[in-house]
Structures are given as C-alpha cells and as structure tokens.
Amino acid sequence: MRIDLHIHTTASDGLLEPAAAVRVIRAAGIEAFSVTDHDSVDGLEEAKREADAAGLTFVSGVELSAYWGRVEFHILGYFIDPASAVLQTFLASTRQARQARLHAMLNRLQAMGMGIPVDEVIARARNGNVGRPHLARALVERGFVENADEAFDRYLGTDRPAYVPRPDVSIRDAIRVIREAGGVASLAHPGLHNRDDALPDLVAAGLEAIEVYHPQHGFGRAGKYRRLARRYELLATGGSDYHGETDGDHASVPGNPSLPEADFARLMAAVAGCR
C-alpha cells in the first residue's frame, strides 16, 4: 500500500486544483493520502469527493505555520474536522494576516523598483489564502527573477530585503487548534529546521507525531527521526510534500517517499482510540 500524507493544492501554494491533484495521486498508484494545504482547508471537500469516486482512502489535513521563539515550524494536522469552529476562526485570522503581510512585502519591492499590483498576486491564491510562493511566481512572470528559487534567495527569504515576518502564532496555539479540531498534530519536515532541541517543548505542548519520511530526509535523516520518534513516543508520518512542481524541498511526483503501511496503521489506531 502506497501512502502519501503531505500533498498541496491550489487551496494554498500548490499548482494543481484539488481534483486534478487527486487524479495525479491515483495515477501514481497511491492508495491513501492527505491534502495538507498551508493554513487552509478550502480544498478538502473537492479532494475528498474525487478520492471517494476513485476508491482512495482520504485523510483530511492542514499545515499550520507557527513559531517556537524566533524559529518558524510547520505543524501538520491529520483527521481534522474542517468545519470546526475553532479551526475556522484560526484560519480566518491567519488569512487576514497573510494579506497584510503581502501588502508590506509589495511595498518593499516597490521601493526597489519592482512594482506588482496586489490583485495580480491575490488572483493566484484560492479564496485569498496568499503566500510568498504566489508572490515569487508573480516576480518570475514580471521578469524580475528567473525562477522562484531566485525570488526567495534574493528578495523573499528570511532576512532578505523584501521579507516581512508573519504575525507570531505560537507552536502551542497551533497544536491546540489542531487537537481541538479533532486532529493529530505532527511536526513537518524537521530536517529542514535542524532544531531537534525544540522537540521537548513541542511534545509538552501536545505534539503527537513527527514527519520521519520527507524528500529532504535521506536515509540517515529518516533513521534519525525514527529514533527520535521512539524516544519521545511519537507516531511517524511522511509524504512527498508534492506541490505540482519540482524545487529543492518538494518531490516531483506524489508518493516519493511513501509512508510505511505499518506506520499508517498505528496512526489510524491512535485516532480510533482517541475517538
């Protein structure tokens, strides 16, 4: 059984509509998957409808951005209730913050001679859930940079001239929202942060799982996070972080890597036990 619990769609910064993403997932031979868009659940209904029609196992998900001190982490939420009032309130606040951040970044780019209309960027985002990848693509289309990687390296990445920090959402708040929405909270791609010293605090805040398998976790890193999962009694999750495109952090196809079936069974059993 091939399992991918980390997929993005146009509901955040992916390039494929949810139904189209599910068709790609099915063609890749994946039998169980989760759509985990950044700070959005807008694509879940469409993805589930397409998954049900294709006979695939669908896990409702989300990926929330939050801070541990000055370090930004992403927390994956699995088996959430998308209609949860707590979750919906949190996401509405996040969406407003994203748009305010976009205006601030556009002002900085304008001061550097790179004028981009705000509507041009927001039009790329589903329901206004805009992020830096949408702005990076606008910079590419305007000819200011060659590709999205250059946009981040020169302007949009942390401490670059057009970078604006997000309003501070704490790790504790993100995990709380996921759990109150009925979900399991998992730390996304810990190898990208290399801040394993945060794990005790995250576990104390209610973290229940860690993403062991990710395109940026080679065999050595996957083994390391498998050992840390055992040490902190965390479940193991994993997936391709597929966005419909290839870059340094995302797999070019869904299912690479695939979460072992035994880990998925343990995750399912934990959810069933909690409920």
How would you summarize what this structure contains?
The protein is α/β, with parallel strands linked by helices. It has helices at residues 18-27, 44-54, 85-111, 118-122, 132-141, 148-156, 171-180, 190-193, 199-204, 219-231, 261-274, and strands at 3-7, 32-35, 57-68, 71-78, 184-187, 209-213, 235-238.
Topology:
Layout: E1 3-7, H1 18-27, E2 32-35, H2 44-54, E3 57-68, E4 71-78, H3 85-111, H4 118-122, H5 132-141, H6 148-156, H7 171-180, E5 184-187, H8 190-193, H9 199-204, E6 209-213, H10 219-231, E7 235-238, H11 261-274
Parallel strand pairs: 1-2, 2-3, 5-6, 6-7
Antiparallel strand pairs: 3-4, 4-5
Structure description:
The protein is of the alpha/beta class and 275 residues long. The protein has one domain (3-90, 167-274): TIM Barrel, CATH 3.20.20. The protein has eleven helices and seven strands. It has helices spanning 18-27, 44-54, 85-111, 118-122, 132-141, 148-156, 171-180, 190-193, 199-204, 219-231, 261-274; strands at residues 3-7, 32-35, 57-68, 71-78, 184-187, 209-213, 235-238. A seven-stranded mixed β-sheet has the order 1-2-3-4-5-6-7. Helix 1 (18-27) links the parallel strand 1 and strand 2. The mean pLDDT is 93.
Q: What key attributes describe this structure?
A:
alpha/beta; 11 helices; 275 residues; TIM Barrel; single chain; seven-stranded mixed β-sheet
